[in-house]
């Protein structure tokens, strides 16, 4: 699974880190970044973390998280 983030859409609600704290973090303005690589906008998600990412994807109110099967 490939996970992409779109910080330009993010409204800094903080929900994604509640559901997938190992994947999502925030910059100084509260906008989404990837926890493991702050400069990246996409990341391959290992199987054991995919359920959490799916939940975060579904909960994001502005679709600033995208996922695809790759
Ligand atoms: S759930 Fe969406 S809007 Fe909320 S902080 Fe995460 S990426 Fe941003």
The major β-sheet equals: 3 strands, antiparallel
Bound molecules: iron/sulfur cluster
Into which percentage range does the β-strand content fall? 15-25%
Number of helices: 2
Q: Give the proportion of residues in helices.
A: 25-40%
**Cα separation of the termini:** 5 Å
The helix/strand series, from N terminus to C terminus, equals EHEEEHE
How are the strands of the biggest sheet laid out side by side? 4-1-5
Helix/sheet category: alpha+beta
Using only C-alpha atoms, the radius of gyration works out to 11 Å
Global morphology: globular
Top CATH class: Alpha Beta
CATH fold call: Alpha-Beta Plaits
Return the domain count: 1
Cofactor: [4Fe-4S] cluster
Protein name: Ferredoxin
Domain 4Fe-4S ferredoxin-type: 1-29
Organism: Enterococcus termitis
Tell me what you see in this structure.
It is a single chain. The chain has 70 residues and is α+β, with helices and mostly antiparallel strands. The chain has helices at 15-19, 47-59, and strands spanning 2-5, 24-26, 32-34, 42-44, 65-68. The strands form two sheets. A three-stranded antiparallel β-sheet has the order 4-1-5, with helices on one face. Strands 2-3 form a two-stranded antiparallel sheet. A hairpin with a 5-residue loop joins strand 2 (24-26) and strand 3 (32-34). The N and C termini lie close together (5 Å). The mean pLDDT is 97. It binds iron/sulfur cluster.
């Amino acid at each position: 699974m490939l996970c992409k983030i779109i910080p330009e859409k993010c409204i800094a609600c903080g929900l994604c880190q509640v559901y997938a704290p190992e994947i999502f973090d925030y910059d100084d303005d509260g906008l989404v970044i990837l926890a493991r690589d702050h400069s990246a906008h996409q990341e391959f998600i290992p199987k054991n973390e995919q359920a959490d990412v799916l939940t975060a994807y579904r909960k994001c109110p502005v679709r600033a998280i995208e996922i695809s099967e790759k």
